[in-house]
Amino acid sequence: MTAAYDSLLSAYVSYASEDSDAAGSVLDTLDTSLLSKNGKKSYIFLSESIMTEYLENTYELANKSYNRSKLTEAKEYYGRIIALDESYDDGNALYNLAQCHRKLREYEEAYEYYKKVAELFPDTSLADNAAVYMRQLEPLL
User: Fold this and answer.
1) C-alpha 80 chain-centroid distance
2) Whose CA is closest to 128, among 141, 114, 110?
3) Residues 16-35: pLDDT tens digits?
4) Which long-range contacts (CB under 8 A, 24 or more apart) does 134-138 make?
5) Nearest-angstrom CA–CA distance, 27 and 52
6) What letter does residue 106 receive in the DSSP assignment?
7) pTM of the prediction?
8) Which residue, among 108, 107, 96, has the nearest Cα to 71 in the 3D structure?
9) In terms of Cα–Cα distance, which of 134, 131, 123, 51 is closest to 88?
């Protein structure tokens, strides 16, 4: 329990220092079930204050890594994003995470993420593309 409050305090110090990336990284790993009611209020305040900027910065890093074929790095960044918001950028973060897994030959994970894209964003080009990849992956599972 003390570790959760240490993390919350660390996130606040980063937030006060205008380092939303550091604050977001800490909040991303914080187990909120260990916080009291007031601790959860503080967590929500910090989250709402920094998450937009944190998600934008992390998405930019993810896309840069993806475009440079640093797929393991990109996968980590996209994973952080969808852990907080599966629908980020209208599903593109989730779709790109599936793409990373597929390109890294992690076919089961890729399939599951493509399936989520198809479920969460039906009647979109992302869902259509995800369905194509799912059919291609089925024989490999």
Assistant:
1) 3
2) 114
3) 898 888 888 888 788 888 98
4) 137/102, 137/107, 137/110, 137/111, 138/111
5) 13
6) -
7) 0.79
8) 96
9) 51
